[in-house]
Write a structure and sequence with these properties.
By secondary structure, the protein is an alpha/beta fold. Helices cover 47% and strands 15% of the residues. It has 14 helices and twelve strands. Strand 1, helix 2 and strand 2 form a beta-alpha-beta unit. Helix 2 crosses helix 14 and helix 7 packs across helix 12. The radius of gyration is 28 Å and the shape is elongated.
Length: 389
Amino acid sequence: MSRLNALSEVKGVMRVAGAARKRAVRSRAYAGRYAAGRRDGWRDGWRDGYRMGLCEWTVQAAVTPLPVRDVHVMYVATGKGFPYSPIDEAVASSLGQLVTRLTVVGRKEEAVQTAADVRPDVVLFLDGLHVPPDIPDRIRELGIRTAIWFTDDPYYTDITAALALHYDDVFTMESNCVAFYRAVGCQRVWHLPLGFFPGHFRPQNAPAEMRCDVAFVGSGYWNRVAFFDRLLPYLAGRNLRIIGYWWERLRDYRRFASRIEGRWMTPQETALVYNGAKIVINMHREPDDGTFNSNSSGIGAVSPNPRTFEIAACASLQLTDVRDELASCFVPGREIETYASPEELAAKIHHYLEREDERRAIALNGLHRTMRDHSYARRLDAMLGALFG
């Protein structure tokens, strides 16, 4: 019995010793993970704080006050819901900073009666595709000036060509459409690009789960699908996010499906994606895509899309395809970076992912230019100047 007891005691001691060794191993592993997490957290926190400090300084240096005009503007919101409602918010909020009186009408059906009641100096419509022409006509019969800002030119010019004639002043985001609208009989036509709204797009710290190497936000139009079919093999080893509809058209969709989110995002969500990405790709849609467009005149597109300004406002490095007027908005290589092929884009992605200082410098230069020149407030100040001098 004593021998059995001795063996039992030995086994018990061994079990205790084994458990102690396991606890020690777990403790060392935990300590290692804790130390690594603390080190990484300190590094990332320092990097985020440094970036936000630079961004704040850049914004303060770029933004200057705009004049307030003693005019009364009535703004008729699109009433189309998302994704137009954020633009309505941006325009209404920006106008409120620029005029002494602003009246906002949420339903186009109320526009005529409201104009008759408040007698504004001008009634501004946005987009206008779903506004019956008799509404601006009846407002003009009251002796009140009307203006339209077309936000999807040149993609739907088969429709907007007829609508434009019902307004006193026509503003278009596409400079190629200025001559087009004048040719159909419009007397006062202005080129006015869209912009960004700092209430939606600005530098901020993105949560860890939204961080990635490369991001693209936008629908899978056929020109984009064909381009990404060639690009994606170069990005297989990168932390990539693609967000938007119709990307199941990709040739190798199954391989990259885990990195694709087929959905719309609010501007606030989109801004977090931009802020969380080291590089954001921008790619314009084609003006001659018969699947989605109504542009039988074949008007080309040379003006940058609004995403150009929204990405830059988030202080992210933007790699964009080239449109002819891009260089009038940003200095390529200094405030923005460009590409002409999937191979060039892949090479530049690799280059800038390995060079954080270069990446940050271009992003900050782009932020400064955007905050100085490309806000909705700047655009609407230019509009008011065109309307009232």
